[in-house]
Amino acid sequence: MGPPRGPLCWLLLLLTAACSGILLALYSSAVGPYPGPRSGARNATWSGTFFGREVSNAGTRKSPHCRHPLSLAIQKHPHFRALFNLSTPVLLSGGLFARELWDSLSQYKAPYGWQGLSFQAINSTLSLLNDSESSKLFAASGKPLPNCVRCAVVGNGGILNGSRQGLNIDAHDYVFRLNGAVIKGFEKDVGTKTSFYGFTVNTMKNSLISYGNLGFTSVPQGQDLRYIFIPSDIRDYVMLRSAILGVPVPEGPDRGDSPARTAGTAAGPAPPPSACSPTCPTTARAALSTSSTGPRPQTYFGPEASAGKFKLLHPHFIGYLRERFLKSKLMNTNFGDLYMPSTGALMLLTALHTCDQVSAYGFITSNYWKFSDHYFERIKKPLIFYVNHDLSLEATLWKDLHKAGILRLYQR
Ligand SMILES: *[C@@H]1O[C@H](CO)[C@@H](O)[C@H](O)[C@H]1NC(C)=O
Ligand SMILES: *[C@@H]1O[C@H](CO)[C@@H](O)[C@H](O)[C@H]1NC(C)=O
Ligand SMILES: *[C@@H]1O[C@H](CO)[C@@H](O)[C@H](O)[C@H]1NC(C)=O
Ligand SMILES: *[C@@H]1O[C@H](CO)[C@@H](O)[C@H](O)[C@H]1NC(C)=O
Ligand SMILES: *[C@@H]1O[C@H](CO)[C@@H](O)[C@H](O)[C@H]1NC(C)=O
């Protein structure tokens, strides 16, 4: 969730829309007015043949010890039972990379695949994800896994302002956060614990730019914290590789960024605030980033940036989520290529496929209009629905999963 703010971004959005010869439509429940199915639509056939090898989200599910495991709630629900496949691999690690995987995923555009990306770039990144931790979300680094893995996923919705949910959030075994996850000054409302931080390079950098003046001055860091890369672009693979190697990004729009602090390099100051938001289209963003040049390099991931610190969502998992849970009507419009599940949705669905119990905080609810877009805003800003995400569809999904007892959605 993160509509653009300020006239600059509006202008850029409109320019982007105009250039593509399309009308930038704000959300309405009727997407009918859009032109019919676009030609050259992505091949949306998904089958179980995308994985070179058998894997599981092993070591994560110990539900027999849970009082109310979500897997049981799924089994009891005819609709969701048909959607969930809890064996679908959530993460992609080096051991899964093979020719067959390349051949199948190179048919699909990022974030669902590797169409147009170089084999060498993908292979060189994945071959670094060879740590045993890379294939599991909850790697037992010395610590035994709890018998019942309880997770909180903290979105950035305005519903959390004044919620006093901090202690409840921190009481979970694992806490997922994403994008502009401001903590300082909001500890009572959002807690302090962060086990996972999820992002695309695009949303991360733009959160730093857009919310820097609201307190998001650095990406969360910590010894026990793990990063979940959403592979929405070649940038994510390149940044991930540089982060593991501890070298500056060698190429592309992030060239010169020093993702991990290495001996002798100091963290650069946060980039200055600007008018654009994490969900602005890339074209608008590119225009902006050349117009507001922040000091570089920015250090993102802290000092101990070893391979085990980074997780990569499997492109096929993202495709599976889109097909089964978030198959938006927007996909059949001229905006189809802009559409993908939001970062928050990807994190919440990741938790639902790996934890035994999941609570969602700061996610969109039916009374979203009562709250500001984000909890950390100083002045109330309405949530605006853009065409790159389908927040209405996501809201319905969270409500239905809550009703089915599969997750607990914080509402007020
Ligand atoms: C989609 O991919 C499948 C499997 O590769 C293929 O059989 C099918 O013809 C493709 N459909 C389209 C519309 O390209
Ligand atoms: C669930 O996913 C696994 C892994 O991809 C696959 O082997 C299995 O056939 C799937 N199960 C169903 C019922 O689709
Ligand atoms: C990936 O690259 C490594 C060398 O870095 C090579 O040994 C391996 O065979 C490559 N993988 C594939 C599937 O070609
Ligand atoms: C992973 O790959 C790197 C670089 O190729 C190598 O140095 C390291 O020993 C490998 N680690 C494991 C656990 O195989
Ligand atoms: C946050 O909540 C306080 C009251 O708890 C309210 O006064 C303030 O306007 C809210 N901020 C926004 C941006 O809605």
From TrEMBL:
InterPro entries: Glyco_trans_29, GT29-like_sf, Sialyl_trans
Signal sequence segment: 1-25
Enzyme class label: transferase
Disulfide bonds: 151-355
One Gene Ontology term from the biological process aspect of the record: protein O-linked glycosylation
Subcellular location: Golgi apparatus membrane
Biased composition (Low complexity): 259-268, 276-293
PANTHER family, alphabetized: ALPHA-N-ACETYLGALACTOSAMINIDE ALPHA-2,6-SIALYLTRANSFERASE 2, ALPHA-N-ACETYLGALACTOSAMINIDE ALPHA-2,6-SIALYLTRANSFERASE 2-LIKE-RELATED
Family assignment from sequence similarity: Belongs to the glycosyltransferase 29 family.
Protein's UniProt name: alpha-N-acetylgalactosaminide alpha-2,6-sialyltransferase
Name of encoding gene: ST6GALNAC2
